[in-house]
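Q: I'm building a small set of examples for a reading group on sequence design. Run inverse folding on the following structure and report the sequence directly after it, with nothing in between.
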């Protein structure tokens, strides 16, 4: 009997289902669908978006979930389990650098809410010189048109210089996230709304199973080969930490990278860090699940990557109160309360 491995994805949009985990049961569950048809997989396949407090995620690729070709007869699809090797998602197409460059126009930063907040960071505004260096370091940009005009663009560029994804985030005056999107999704909606044909790069890119398939800041690894690596969940945390702890132009300073979110700490992503010293800074979580998850991952990764050290910082765990755990604060939430100038001197 032959097996066919179709393409699966988490259901697009905001629809949520009841989480099948006995310890959760919240309506925060996103189910997997078959990409070509939009049909749901069995209800156990999906991910709960309560990552820290639940963490349920049953991935059909890792579970070896397949469709039997004999069940495709008569236009009817019956899904079954098989033992074939799952097809792992990978990047087949990238965002053209010319598209990224449109977000890097100099006049855009004046309307960039996130960047302007850094410069006006009351009562501790950051040095304009340091902010400019961080912008250049990570290729931070601005969405210059549309309803999200002024939003921060955050590119995920791999070690070979390929732009794997461009996240788009809007912020309030305290630099708390308001909305999150992706440049490819905004572009797709634009072309569909206008009734125009999508460019080839976008058609190809939308076929990628995984969009955020590399580390934020990964393109800096070869430029700063001797720096210890600090790995956090979100790019915002990496940006703030760089401003506080110092740029990687000094070999003793951390090179701050981000994985995207709690569940995005994957071995495949971290293989580019082989031979480096890595310290992980997970966000807080109500019951410490985030810290436990990343601690287990660190042990697993060290076994798979000889000569690489993974250490999980318990700094936040040791100092947080219950309210801060409940809010899921990250390292940046603590840093922004401090005067960065005094912090650098004390460091």
């Amino acid at each position: 009997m032959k097996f066919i491995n179709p393409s699966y994805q988490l259901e697009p949009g905001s629809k949520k289902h009841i989480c099948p985990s006995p310890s959760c049961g919240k309506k925060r569950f996103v189910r997997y669908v078959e990409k070509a048809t939009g049909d749901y997989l069995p209800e156990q396949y999906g991910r709960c978006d309560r990552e820290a407090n639940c963490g349920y995620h049953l991935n059909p690729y890792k579970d070896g979930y397949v469709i039997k070709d004999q069940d495709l007869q008569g236009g009817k699809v019956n899904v079954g389990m098989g033992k074939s090797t799952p097809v792992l998602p990978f990047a087949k197409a990238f965002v053209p650098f010319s598209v990224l460059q449109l977000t890097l126009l100099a006049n855009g930063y004046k309307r960039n809410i996130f960047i302007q907040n850094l410069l006006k960071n009351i009562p501790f505004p950051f040095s304009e010189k340091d902010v400019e260096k961080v912008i250049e370091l990570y290729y931070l940009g601005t969405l210059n048109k549309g309803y999200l005009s002024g939003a921060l663009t955050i590119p995920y560029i791999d070690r070979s210089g390929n732009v794997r994804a461009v996240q788009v985030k809007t912020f309030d005056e305290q630099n708390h996230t308001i909305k999150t999107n992706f440049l490819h999704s905004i572009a797709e909606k634009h072309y569909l709304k206008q009734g125009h044909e999508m460019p080839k790069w976008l058609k190809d890119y939308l076929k990628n199973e995984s969009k955020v398939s590399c580390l934020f800041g990964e393109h800096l690894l070869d430029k700063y080969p001797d720096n210890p690596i600090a790995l956090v969940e979100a790019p915002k945390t990496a940006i703030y930490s760089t401003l506080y702890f110092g740029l990687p132009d000094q070999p003793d300073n951390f090179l701050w990278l981000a994985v995207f979110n709690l569940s995005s700490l994957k071995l495949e992503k971290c293989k580019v860090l082989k031979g480096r010293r890595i310290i992980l800074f997970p966000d807080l979580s109500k019951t410490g699940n985030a810290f436990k998850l990343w601690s287990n991952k660190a042990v697993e990764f060290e076994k798979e990557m000889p000569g690489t050290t993974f250490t999980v910082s318990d700094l936040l765990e040791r100092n947080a109160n219950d309210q801060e755990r409940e809010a899921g604060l990250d390292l940046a939430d603590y840093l922004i309360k401090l005067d960065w100038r005094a912090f650098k001197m004390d460091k």
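The chain is about 25% helix and 20% strand.
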